[in-house]
Amino acid sequence: MGNAIVLFGATGDLSRRKILPALSTLIERGKLPPDIAVIGAATRELSLEEFFDYVKAPEKIRSNIEYISGNFLEESTFHAIGKRLGGREKVIFYLATPPSYYKPIITALAKHTIATQKGEGGFNRIIIEKPFGVDLPTARELNETILRYFDENQIYRIDHYLGKESVQNISAFRFSNGMFEPIWNRNYIDYITITVAENIGVENRGKYFEEAGILRDIVQNHLFQILALIAMEPPAAFTADAVRDEKVKVFKSVKRVDIKEVVRGQYRGYREEENVARDSTVETFVFAKLFVENWRWAGVPFYIRTGKRLEQKLTEVVITFRQPPLRMFNAIPDEVCGIPNQLVLRIQPERSISIRFGVKRPGQGMEMMSVDMRFNYTDYITGKPISDYERLLLDCYQGDLTLFARSDGVEECWKIIDPIEHAWRGDASDMVVYEPGTWGPDSDILFENQCHAF
Ligand code: BG6
Known about the structure:
The chain is of the alpha/beta class. About 35% of the residues lie in helices and about 20% in strands. It is built from twelve helices and 15 strands. The protein has helices spanning about 15-30, 50-55, 75-85, 100-110, 135-150, 165-175, 205-230, 240-255, 335, 390-400, 405-425, 445-450; strands at about 5-10, 35-40, 65-70, 90-95, 125-130, 155, 190-195, 265, 285-290, 300-305, 315-320, 340-350, 350-360, 370-375, 430-435. It has a nine-stranded mixed sheet, covered by helices on one side. The protein has a six-stranded parallel sheet with strand order 3-2-1-4-5-6, covered by helices on one side. Strand 5 (about 125-130), helix 5 and strand 6 (about 155) form a beta-alpha-beta unit. Helix 4 (about 100-110) packs parallel to helix 5 (about 135-150) and helix 7 crosses helix 11. The longest helix has 26 residues, at about 205-230. The N and C termini lie far apart (about 55 Å). The site of 6-O-phosphono-beta-D-glucopyranose has 3 residues, from loops. 6-O-phosphono-beta-D-glucopyranose binds near residues 160, 198 and 217.
């Protein structure tokens, strides 16, 4: 019974940087069968050797690779793929192309019966990269197209943040400890801040970014997935559908965002980037105040913020607990006794969890100081850690959908995003230009919500 992965968009940046190295490591570590065929497909005319050079294919995977150059809109490409696949029984189709090719590829796979149901033990699975649509109507249309030919349980919508060790640990931390979950609600939590900051700009992806903006690029997927893991109810079991049901409930509970509490920014110099309009109004920073209106979270603000060209790369969730009802230590200066308890889940670059609390400063009197009790994930990782793409590819091969987005979840996320995009359309007078290397726009809204620094 043969195995194969067909990689559409094999010459793209993502294939070169992430997918091929991940496949190579999985084969090397014996996680994928040593004889799995990796069939790269892309429009560029290249010989196999030229393809290896072009994508800098890792040595270890070269003997598995075949390359097909062809246009994804032409039948001959799919005939060639079908022929190479032969009677292989376990096949993953990986769509790492520009999104405009998703529909033609999916339709052609079905039409040429390349991806028809397999016999017992065999499978056809399809991995789709983001962006999954650009708004609710386009996401729905794409879902309809795929679901016409594939079952939901064959579709793996990838969000690489869900493959990160420290993101997975959010569920482990919440649902395997008795001491945090009882206070994980509106009675004890004052507000929650979720940050996805990057120091890089748009790099060579100006064209894509001009159509996306950071709201679609990061918030709709990575940031909302983190939000769901923080806010969801304990699932009935840790199975794909039970987990995804709970996430969908969170998205459905998010109240329509008040646009007056959204800050959008653009880093100085963005308009000079390659393939970016000189008068672009696309946002590279966004802050928003969200409310998850359910019994657990009513009234608790979730501040979300993300930006490019900020001071440093940092992804973290900060849970700020309510202050004690009375201040016992009156004599102490405000800035010291006003420090709240915080739980900081740092996702990257360090992977750590800290609890921030006040203790008495040693010495005479009753002065308080804030200290951190920290668990560092890296102290417990032995050997080379599994990367996000490795984990997700392996999950797909093993048929585990837990870390992949379901069609209803994707659509619910667009329902939160679309009203913001609509409100922004046409008038960009609220856009704030910020200096690269800083923590983003100077804005009263950020100050009022303690989100002007990190
Ligand atoms: C991608 C976005 O999904 O995630 C990029 O399209 C972003 O704009 C990247 O830079 C960040 O991923 P990571 O794993 O480096 O935090």
